[in-house]
Write a structure and sequence with these properties.
This protein is α/β, with parallel strands linked by helices. The protein folds into 2 domains: 271 residues, 3-Layer(aba) Sandwich (Rossmann fold); 83 residues, formyl-coa transferase, domain 3, CATH 3.30.1540.10. It is built from 17 helices and 13 strands. Strands 5-2-1-6-7-8 form a 6-stranded parallel β-sheet, sandwiched between helices. Strands 9-10-11 form a 3-stranded antiparallel β-sheet, with helices on one face. It is elongated. The protein starts with 13 loop residues before the first strand and ends in a 15-residue tail after the last helix.
């Protein structure tokens, strides 16, 4: 662990987070990890929906449940939580005061859901023309579906991802499958972060903020990537082909003597190396397989030939042989094996932070590595309303000057553990 103190890349940026569940909180956590001061506004009594999405729950030092769900913990690090009832005039007044001083606001209410409280972009723009206001919805602010609620699973289906995920159409058990994590929410959170940073860069030149309209459906379709352009350019509807790649062969899983492994050949030279590693060097000179277009054409023949050989040895043995030959390959790990991997451990992907209800909480590190303004872990995912009383005691959650909070953040130890006591 590096104990050096650094100033975050976004130090001094004020973010008002009115979002819940995953896409919005993922974006605001990323901003917080990079140094922004993020205030998470939650409903009194219940808070973010994901607080109830358990088990599993974080246990305290005695092994008793703290009531903090693992799901909530994954997306709310480095934030402060305040509880405000938006349906009450006093609550609306407090949020307006925060928005007046904020640089960024993130929300994922239904379209026009905040307008009845006077907290929509048009209203808050009058109070703070510099505000970057990011709205995340299932289907966007316009169109025939705009009023619909949108959840990741639903959007994976509507946006085409599930038509591409799962066993091949002609195999037993074939059918659509969602990804094992909420990928549409995650990618929407990433797009939101990029859009927010772009809007802030423009504000530096123009002096004014803007409204960002992000739809999960739009993002999911954008993330179809080559599969979407395969259809738009080629005119053929992509179909599920299991773990195989539509444009590259061999690029999929293969059985071994003790399980499965992945071989990911991206060019003809790598294919020649694979053939040598398999003891069949002449395959790379076979006109059916010499080039990738030919391998795609003769996919079924080649895959069957490779499988007949890979089943003869254990996964670990094959990986040793293929890595020596320069063939991209790897195991298919369970999650516990992921965190036991020496590469993962060397990168400190697992971190621990002190927690006010438990001795520590284990979390996944932010993957961004920056040399001059590295990610800092200053505040564990807050308990519901943890900062309400202290934050509003002085009449403002963001005291003046802002350097007061920046100075407090500088006490955080880079990639270290900071003991967080009660701040109520």
């Amino acid at each position: 662990m590096n104990g050096t103190s650094h100033q975050g890349a976004l130090d001094g940026l004020r973010v008002l987070d009115l979002s819940r569940v995953l896409a919005g909180p993922w974006a605001s956590q990323l901003l917080a990890d990079l140094g922004a001061d993020v205030v998470k506004v939650e409903r009194p009594g219940t808070g973010d929906d994901t607080r109830a999405w358990g088990p599993p729950w974080l246990n305290d030092a005695d092994g008793e449940s703290t009531g903090e769900s693992a799901y909530y913990l994954c997306a709310n690090r480095n934030k402060r939580s305040v509880t405000i009832d938006l349906s009450q005039p006093d609550g609306q007044r407090l949020v307006k005061e925060l928005a007046r001083k904020a640089d960024v606001l993130v929300e994922n209410f239904k379209v026009d859901g905040l307008s009845r409280y006077g907290l929509d972009y048009a209203s808050l723009k009058e109070l703070n023309p510099r505000l970057v206001y990011c709205s995340i919805t299932g289907f966007g602010q316009t169109g025939p579906y705009a009023a619909r609620a949108g959840y990741d699973f639903l959007i994976q289906g509507m946006g085409g991802l599930m038509s591409l995920t799962g066993r091949a159409y002609d195999t037993e058990g074939a059918g659509p499958l969602k990804a094992g994590v909420a990928l549409t929410d995650i990618t929407t959170g990433l797009y939101a972060t990029v859009a927010i940073l772009a809007a802030l860069a423009r504000r530096e030149r123009s002096g004014i903020g803007q409204h960002i309209d992000l739809a999960l459906l739009d993002v999911q379709i954008a993330c179809l990537a080559n599969q979407a352009t395969n259809y738009l350019v080629g005119g053929v509807v992509p179909r599920r082909i299991g773990n195989a790649h539509p444009n590259i062969v061999p690029y999929q899983d293969f059985p071994t003597a003790d399980g499965h492994m992945i071989i990911a050949v991206g060019n003809d030279n790598q294919f020649a190396s694979l053939c040598t590693a398999l003891g069949e060097a002449h395959w790379s000179r076979d006109e059916r397989f010499a080039s990738n277009p030919q391998r795609v054409k003769h996919r079924n023949e080649l895959i069957a030939m490779i499988r007949s050989i890979t089943v003869s040895r254990a996964t670990g043995d094959w990986i040793t042989v293929m890595e020596a030959a320069g063939v991209p390959c790897g195991p298919i790990n369970n999650v516990d094996q992921v965190f036991e991997d020496p590469q993962v451990q060397s990168r400190d992907v697992r971190i621990e932070m002190s927690h006010p209800l438990a001795k520590t909480v284990a979390l996944v590190a932010n993957p961004i590595r920056m040399s001059e303004s590295p990610v800092q872990y200053c505040q564990p995912p807050p308990t519901l309303g943890q900062h309400t009383r202290r934050s509003f005691r002085t009449g403002s959650i963001w005291p003046q000057p802002i350097s007061m909070y920046s100075a407090a953040r500088s006490l955080c130890r880079y990639r270290g553990t900071l003991t967080v006591g009660s701040t109520q």
